[in-house]
Structures are given as C-alpha cells and as structure tokens.
Design a protein that fits this description.
- Two copies of one chain form a homodimer.
- Chain A is an alpha+beta fold.
- In chain A, 43% of the residues lie in helices and 18% in strands.
- In chain A, the strands form three sheets. An eight-stranded mixed beta sheet of chain A has the order 1-5-6-11-10-9-7-8.
- Chain A is elongated, with a radius of gyration of 28 Å.
- Chain A starts with 13 loop residues before the first helix and ends with a helix.
- The relative contact order of chain A is 0.11.
- The interface between A and B is large, with 99 and 99 residues.
C-alpha cells in the first residue's frame, strides 16, 4: 500500500508544524491588534457558489465531492448530465468566494464595516511541481462595507507590519488601479478582445523588459502601430514610476479614457499619502502603472508586495466592489489583501528567519527505574506549572540509551532522578547546551536557572 | 442562490471562532507542556488508506473526491467498476487512520516513542441532527512505540489536566480492557458471532439498566441460559465497580478465559495506581468492567471520561497495538485518547465556561474628520505596541452613529480624537463599562489605566 500522501499533498512533521504555527501566530497577532475579526467557513461549498467566480483557469482546478448512495445512482442514470451531475459540493479553491457567500448570508449579524481575517487551507488540483501544492494555506484580510481609501491604506499597513515583524526588510508595495489599465488599453487603441492578453503581457514588465513585451505583444496579434503607441506611453510612465508624480503623469494621459468621471486618481493619492504619513514599517510604497494582478474580480485599486530576496510577489490584493453583489444581489464594496503563506514559509525557511527554539523541550527526565515514574511525573508537573515543557521517558531503558534519545530530540535540559535524588528530594539538572550541571532543592530557583541559561 | 452552508456544515461567526480558538489554545498548551508534538496530514487520503479500517458504519460516511478530466471519462466508460472507480481520494473521517499512515511512512524520522497530538477537522456524511455535524473537529493525543502502562497513565493524566483547566469538575475516568470483554463473552458462553452485538448492549448498562439489557439481549437472539449467566456475572462485578478490588474480582472470574497468559490485570492495576499516586486533577478513575467503546481497532485497555453535567462521554480512548501493522506490516504498539472537541464546546457554551473578554476590542477610535485619520492611526499604533487591540473607524460619520457602532461591538474603551486633542496631543479616553472618562498625555499611563479598569 502506498504510504506517502497523494500527489501534491504533504505531511507536516513536528518541526515543520511548529514553523507553520509560528507564522500563523505572528500573523494573527497583528490582525487582532488592528481589530480584524477571525471567521471560518466549511471547506466544502455548494458547487454553484464556487463556479463562475474566478475565471476558467482556476475552476479547472476544483476538487469536487462525489454524491453518495441513491443520489449517485440516479446521477449515473441521467446520462445527459454526466459528469457534472455526479457532484454537488466542492472544496474551496480560495477564501474570497466563501467570504462573499458568508457575508451575503450573515450581513445582518455583522458590523456595517466588517473587518475579517481568515487563515486556512484551500485546494487546487494543480499539476505537481516544486513549490506548488494541492493543499495550501491562504491568509486573507478583507474589509467589506466601505469604499473609503483608508481601507486600502489600512490593509496595506497591517500586512506591511506583519512582514516587518516576520523579519522582511526593504520590501516594496506597488499599487495601481484596474480602471487605469483599461484606460491605457483604450488610449492606445488595443482591441477590447485583446485587453486581457495584452495586460498579462504588460504584467511581465519587470521580468522580460520592453523588448520582451514588444515581441510578446506582436505574437498575441497586436498590430505594430498599437504596439509602438503602447511602448511610447509606457516609456513616459516608466520614468516616474516610483514617485507620486507618476500619478499626475498618468492622469494627463489617461483621465480622458476613464469610463466615468470618477475619483481614481484622488483615491490612489489618498492611499499613498496616508501610508507615507503614518510611516510604513520596513517597506516603501510606489505607484506602478504596469501592475496588473490576475484575479478577474478586482474593480479598483490593486496592490502587490515584492521582496528583494525573491523574484515573485509575497502578497497581493485589491478592491472588489462587485463580487458580493454578483453572488447575492446586495451591493457591498470590499477590499482585501492576501499574504502568500506558503511562499513566505519557503522564504523564511531558506533565509533562516525562524527562531531557533521553536518546539524545544525544556526538560527531559530519563526513567532510572519504573518505581520512580510517579516521582518523575510529580517533579515534571512542578515544572509544567511554570509553563515549561517536560518529557518523562516512559520506559526504564539503559540511561545511555535514554540520553541518546534526549540528544536526538535536542532537549535543553536533562534532570537525573535516581535513588539519591528521590530520597533527598534533589533536582539534579544538566544544561545540554553548555554541559553545566547543578543541584537544586527548590523548583523555583531551578526554573530561574533554566530561564537564565 | 442558496447562501447558507450545505447540509451539516457550519459558518463560524467571530464570537464562535474566538471560543473555538480559546479551546484549541487551552488544549495545546497542556499537550505541549507534556512534550507531545503536533503534526498535520492532508485532509485527503488515498481511498484505500481509509477503507477497511474502522467498520462499515463509519465508512458509509466517507466523502469521496471525484476524479477529474480524462481519468473521470475513462472511469465512466468502465461501467463494471462504477461507481467505486469514480473517485481515488477521500476526506479523512478521523485522525487515527491518517496517524497510522503518517507513522508507517515517517517512522525512521520520528522518535522511537512518538508522542503526538493533532487538533483538526474530519468529515462524515452523517444525517443532519442537533449536535451532529458533517465537518467536525477532533482532538487526539497518541503515543506510538511503547507498550508500557505508563503510556495509558500519561494520556489519561494529560487529558484530565486539560478538562480541569477548562473548568470541568468531578468528572470520572472509566477504564476497562478489550480482552476482558472477550473473556466475559467466553465465560458466559456467548456465541462468538454475537460478541459484538452483545457488547454493544452491555455498553448501555448505565443508560438502560439490567432489565433493559436482559430484554435487548433476548431480542438479539441470545438464549435464556446465557443471559442469566451473564447477568449473574455482571451483578457480581457491578457491586465493586468503583474500586481497585473490582479488578481482583474480575481476575477470579475471567483470568482462565483470557486468550493468552498475558498481563491484562497487572497492566490495568499499574495504570490505576500510577494515576491515583500522581493525583488526578478534578477527576477520579475507576475500573468499569462494562465499558466497551465502539472502535474496532482497540486491542487492550480502553477508557472514557464522563462528566456529571452531560449524559454522554466527553473523551474516549484506548490501546490499538495492531492498526499500524495492519496498514504497513510493521509492528508498533500504540495508545491514544480523543477529546470530544465539539461536545466540549457545546457544554462550555451552555454552562458559560468561556472567559467573558474573548475577542474584545480594547480601544475604539471614532473618526471626527478625515483629516485626523493619520493622527488616529499613529495613536492606535502607540497602543498596539502595548499589545492592545485598537480599531480606528475609517469613515467620518456622525459621532453618535460611530458610538452606536462601538456600543454594538462591545468595545472596552473609546478614545475621542477631535481638533483639541490633536492640537494638544491629548488622549481623551472613556471606559465604556464604568462610564469613567479621563485625559492623558502619556500613552504608558493610559495603558496602565486601561489595564487596571
């Protein structure tokens, strides 16, 4: 029988689990301090909730739950509707669509402006490759119910603080607006059928450069004139990319191509100014007119965080004012940010950004003889009362065997509880790092010694 | 479109999430102090791993994952093997079978005696009824690799400490041994084909009494003589049920019917003595010769915890020395305890056993004017640096509207940041519980005031 997890799935050993737990705790801590509230939704949703929300590509990857019993038999008989009638539920592939469903269902019992975070697994039947998993954690923070640019500012600030707390330095927040991208397409007369494809190409700016973009656009069927026009515009915008001035330049070019007389530019400036005034921990924020972001549901500002240590983004988000209305018919502006949990974990692993003592056992008590087990437990409990982690070995194997086990576990201290120690009620402890040994009669003093070592 | 979760599934609102989180934290804290290690496994396992392990009843409840693409098309063509060939993966229905798979796969990289806990959801397609969910959390602690009775003692002690910490009082740990049940069946000459059914009946002792048992045994086809014999034996054992002496009485009756010359009684006594010597927090432990436990895989001692506040058990476990061998061909003794997470949550809710301030927002800052948003954020950050939860309202609505929102949220304090406060750098705070207001210029002093209120 195959004992490894199925394709793209992972077991987590204790040392990996401790890291994931640490990451979740560090993230949650900041979300909570900002007043974001946690929720949870079932891992399974009705199929119709998940379908038609996030583009074909994502939906191909949905894991569907098979009907059971009579329902399955009936479905198999109804040959015309095979195979789509075989399932009625599916595993969520992101946390945004479930949030929209949750909000539409529960909005009467939620604050008018609902600030929530959700750290939980999602499932995608991706082809297995390095760093791609079929079960992966997502970490989303979203605000529903307000169109204020302060919302964008707040989600960017909270995510920046998290990254900073985790040890990320000199990261960059890039921000753009979906509506500007559309205006850009109009401005240079890209046929509307090619918008999406051209935008996907533009998104690769940092990776393939202007020449690469030219080539790819031609391959995508854009005519030469339009390509020239687009490149010219891009060139002008690129020069001032990293400054607030870029917004003004963009306004000059693009304002007249915006669909409605709306406040795209004022909204963007407010976000940038707010963040710059509060002071963004360890990161800076820039307007990037070529930022695209994949998800179809974004309607306004979009943003992404990249770190100099990796060539991909580590967080991404934006405003999606229509998603909840699409689902429930009820209008509700919304804006969110998603932290690339698995990516960040990978980076932190590679860059040794986790604390060293994660999951460390403070005290290991080998068992000299079965008759001392109760004494060992009582002693262990007196240390556990001080929140120390204590393991009592349950078998009276030879002490050198038990010490080997302790070494392999990397325990911090060992307490030897032999005949003398039991009789004299002594705590004979050895620090496994320094090799120093000491004898105590008082638990508290021993705890202090442990904590100062 | 239906917006509620599908049958048997639940959304968790923030206030419910906080309770679940609290419960998990309180449980984990104790597991960790005892040196148990956390792991995680995928929610999906290969179907063949889950099938054939836990009895027909449980397996009927498995949610299966449908194959996709070409695989699905092929499966539909292969009519002979329909419908079982439509799926290759399934959602786990417990945490024990995944543990056995995990251990068999990873044992070379795990400690020889592996102490692990796992708190995670499982899925069962149960018929919806009050308190039965299709997605439910399980909370298991298990030790693999040791046959010592100290293992049983330790898992019972750790679970008892957890229940005690959660506020459960006067609970009872009942303990028996699967082999004694089999011996009992032999002793009174129950036909071996009826063992399971008769045991299910005996398990109801506390609920239906001796008369009820008699009736049910007759209905199950047991002959009168055997019933009489069984009742006689039960009567003798019942008298001393709650004392260590009961083990000696059971030994007299049953020892000669044990399959092998093994140490059932010594093992049981060691467990009871160890626990009694260490002192079991808030609970007592008794030998209960009629405790049965449902799971097919138990091989030795079995145990259960019941609380006077509810008519069902709140934790159950036992030794399962063959499960890992069945799966992998490698011998590994194992013993575990499972805490009834959802039941405990239900009880704690009903009995008001959760702290009052779960998820409380410490400070709410209404927004007097958009121009003060940055000041409000800066002020908020200075309190967040002291680990306080601060929410800044993002829209400059009328203050009485914002105060209504604050009241609805049940925030602890409100800081008013108007023109004067911004100009004079004052912190004008009101405790929403007592109604007391105070003005500070120093954040630290204000934090102290908040913490002492």
């Amino acid at each position: 029988m195959k004992l490894n997890p199925a394709e793209g799935l992972r077991d987590f050993m204790p040392e990996e689990y401790f890291k994931r737990e640490y990451l979740i705790e560090k993230i949650q801590e900041v979300f909570k301090k900002y007043g974001f509230l946690p929720i949870d939704t079932p891992v399974m949703e009705r199929k119709e909730i998940l379908e038609g929300k996030s583009g074909e590509e994502t939906e191909k990857l949905i894991f569907r739950i098979q009907k059971r019993g009579d329902k399955l038999t009936k479905a198999l008989e109804d040959k015309e509707n095979l195979p789509s009638n075989l399932s009625d539920l599916a595993l969520r592939y992101d946390l945004t669509v479930p949030l929209a469903r949750f909000y539409a269902k529960n909005r009467n019992n939620l604050p008018q402006i609902f600030k929530r975070y959700h750290i939980a697994p999602v499932w995608r039947a991706e082809r297995a490759q390095v760093g791609r998993y079929r079960e992966l954690y997502q970490c989303d923070v979203d605000v529903i119910g307000s169109a204020s640019p302060f919302i964008e500012a707040e989600v960017i600030l909270v995510v920046s603080e998290i990254l900073s707390n985790l040890g990320f330095k000199e990261f960059t927040v890039r921000i753009n607006d979906r509506r500007l991208l559309k205006a850009l397409m109009k401005a240079v007369k890209v046929p509307s059928t090619l918008y999406d494809k051209v935008l996907i190409t533009i998104d690769k700016m940092d990776k393939i450069g202007l020449e690469g973009i030219k080539k790819e656009l031609a391959a995508r069927g854009l005519n030469d004139n339009t390509i020239q026009e687009l490149i010219k515009t891009i060139n002008k915008l690129v020069k001032e990319k990293a400054s607030l001035k870029a917004i003004e330049i963009a306004r000059e070019f693009l304002e007249k191509f915006l669909d409605e007389d709306n406040n795209v530019f004022e909204h963007l400036k407010k976000i940038l100014e707010t963040i710059n005034s509060v002071g963004n921990k360890s990161g800076n924020i820039i307007f990037d007119p070529f930022l695209v972001r994949g998800m179809a549901y974004y309607t306004g500002p979009i943003f992404e965080i990249s770190s100099p240590v990796v060539p991909f983004s580590i967080a991404g988000g934006g405003r999606f004012d229509n998603l909840i209305e699409n689902l429930s018919g009820q209008k509700a502006p919304a804006c969110g940010f998603s932290i690339g949990f698995e990516r960040i974990l990978l980076i932190m692993n590679e860059q040794n950004m986790f604390p060293e003592n994660l999951g460390k056992i403070d005290i290991f008590i080998p068992l000299f003889s079965e008759e001392y087990f109760v004494d060992a437990l009582k002693l262990a409990n007196s240390f556990r009362a001080h929140s120390l982690t204590v393991e009592v070995f349950p078998e009276a194997k030879k002490i050198n065997k038990q010490m080997k086990i302790a070494n392999k576990k990397g325990v911090s201290n060992v307490i030897f509880l032999g005949e003398n120690e039991v009789k004299n009620k002594e705590i004979n402890i050895k620090n496994m790092g320094t090799g120093e040994s000491k004898t105590f009669t008082d638990v508290k003093k021993c705890v202090e010694w442990i904590q100062n070592n």
